[in-house]
Amino acid sequence: MKNVNLPFIPLRNLTVLPGMTMQIDISRKKSIMATNKSMGQNQTIFLVTQIDHEVVDPDIDDLYKVGCIAKIKQVVKLPNKILRIQVEGQLKAELCDIEDRGDYCLANVAPFVSHFSKPDEVTNKAMVMALHELIKRYAIADLKMSRDLLSDWLAIKDANKLMEAILKDYPMDYTQRQVFLEVTDINEMYELLAKTMLEDCEAFAIREELAIKVKNRVDKNQREYILREQIGVLNEELDGKLVSEIDDFKQKIEALDAADYVKEKLFKELRRLKEVQGSSSEANVQRTYIENCLELPWNVQTVDNKDIFNARDILDEDHYGMKEIKERVLESLAVRNITTRSDAPIICLVGPPGTGKTSIARSVARALNKNYVRICLGGVRDEAEIRGHRKTYIGAMPGRIIDALVSAGSNNPLMLLDEIDKMSSDYKGDTQSALLEVLDSEQNTHFLDHYIEMPVDLSNVLFIATANDLSGISRPLLDRMEIIEVNSYTENEKLHIAKEHLIKKQIKKNGLMQKDVKFTDKAINKIITSYTREAGVRNLERQISKVCRKAVKKLYELGAFLEDGTRNKDVKEVIRVTDKNLEEFLGKEKYRREVKNKNSDIGIVRGLAWTAVGGDTLEIEVNTMPGKGELKLTGSMGDVMKESAMIALSYVRSITEKGKYKVDIDFFEKHNIHIHIPEGATPKDGPSAGVTLATGILSAVTGIKVFANLAMTGEITLRGKVLAIGGLKEKLLAAKAAKITKVLVPIDNEKDIEEFDEEILEGMEIVYVKNMLEVLDNSLDI
């Protein structure tokens, strides 16, 4: 037949065969216009399937080469601009070309004379018999097949018509229909159809077989469930799985190195596990409890290293300074070697962040050859975190003490209780009270965890606690610990720590060798004074790490490393870090030390303060002005400091009525006094500013200057007695950094200064004062 031009519709996931009647929903504008064009002519349209259904505007390469010429029987308009058309396939045709007419597309197609070629009579009979046999097998396999359709197929005696009828109603994918549409040979058509029906029959058979297997498995599970409910025959029906688990637990309990009461308790729990359902939640609770108890090192101990000289060498190797802590550890070791007693002291290291409290504990563990385990208590507010949960609760678990023992693998580890001052309490209990039993040597021999429910001996554990501030620790808990203060480092100590530990550590950590980077002492001192402000060395280590990273980058640029990170043996570069080029590595200086005033002044006094990161100096300014006798306080003073200011004012008024500091009797009624501490955004509080405030007020009232090279610390009473203060080492270090040459200290603190190194006191005159009159004699320039 000759080629014809017809409007055409590209179909998605659908193939129409000759003789098929079906409904098609179309929404694309060109398809709708093609339909309208066809309805306006002879209602004939060409339908061809897209190869990729996601293509929106297909061209000839996106379409199969064979489609179907169809007759439009009915058009129905649906909402959302959708047309539903009913078509009847007429002839298959080959797509030759496409012409885009703008609103729609026209297809040039070549129709086929006949859909199938005609077989001879014998071949026709053989094909019909074979197809009828396959149809019967398919009907047996697919119970959903229509009986009327089966009868219609079996009544057809012409192979060509039979295959056409089967293809119209047989359930298959559109790609399969496209294959049948393109076949022209009757024998090939028969082979494809027979193969398809045979494969479907096999698939139905396999599906039936799988369904039977699934049913059998479900029946088996149901049977096992019923058997689990029958406790008497449980072990016989579950292939001995529970029996083997019970036997395994029994062997482990018998081999456990623990006291008799522990084994008796575990055997009792094991008998209870036998009686409960194997997969029940209660069985899982019992099983988990037994496993946790078996993991505990009841009588497992490591052998301590009793060599005092080895311990001294390790402690000196890991840390510079810290004489008191090292001596305390060596004393304990010496006493234990002589007495063979295992009473372990509870040591609490108190000091600012970054001073090495945690690392000294790790070194002590290494020196004594003890297993080391750390418990971080910061933010812990639930008592169950310490004592464990009751076993009856869902998700119950042992407390952190028991977990730490399991992790250590021995009952005599060194256990670090880190950040003990940062625990809190809420409605779930007081965590600090829960620690009382743990840290009391008279009670911790029988520590009772709520989950384990058996006494656990903690007397062999060496506890070391760390804290930044003792004010957050309750008095009963403090009473159970030996407090050792880890004070701020001097600049010289920081220099030695950096040279002996930090630089080596960071060079290795950043993949360098010791010969690659060289730090001068002046560079280290500049990092300490100009880039860090801290009591410890944590930020110092960060700055050294930053220098090392910059050094790695610089070595790359100089060709010391190849692209793959290996060293270039031909290039030997050394990065030298000096005080002159330090800004290239760390940028501009971050801190500038406050220094003493050049000249003495009226109403300006320098006090000393302790902070969480070390010591600092506070310049207190006092001024007077005409007024009504009011006292004004600014600079974010806390309540304690405000009370100190009022006490200081009362004392000054009491001594100005007579003596060498006498002023007019009505001066305080006619003048206001304003006290200010610069850096008003920083809160300030504490009980050691009384002498400074009183000196500043008296200087402002009398007009007498205060020496500029002077700093002082101490609290006063209304009668002028100077009281002792804390944090003296940090305060003296701050005074030294500010180039103060004379410091007034309460006489009650004389015993503290005797313990300080000469390095701290070098170049400073320490004057001990017992009352305010001595303070004024040493501070006012009369």
TrEMBL record:
GO terms for biological process: cellular response to heat; protein quality control for misfolded or incompletely synthesized proteins. SUPFAM superfamilies: P-loop containing nucleoside triphosphate hydrolases, PUA domain-like, Ribosomal protein S5 domain 2-like. It catalyses: Hydrolysis of proteins in presence of ATP. The active site is at S688, K731. Residues 599-782 form the Lon proteolytic domain. It holds the Pfam family LON_substr_bdg. The keyword Chloroplast does not apply. One of its GO terms (molecular function) is ATP hydrolysis activity. Keywords: ATP-binding, Cytoplasm, Hydrolase, Nucleotide-binding, Protease, Serine protease, Stress response. The keyword 4Fe-4S does not apply. Residues 6-201 form the Lon N-terminal domain. Induction: By heat shock. GO terms for cellular component: cytoplasm. Belongs to the peptidase S16 family. Homohexamer. Organized in a ring with a central cavity. This is Lon protease. The gene is lon.
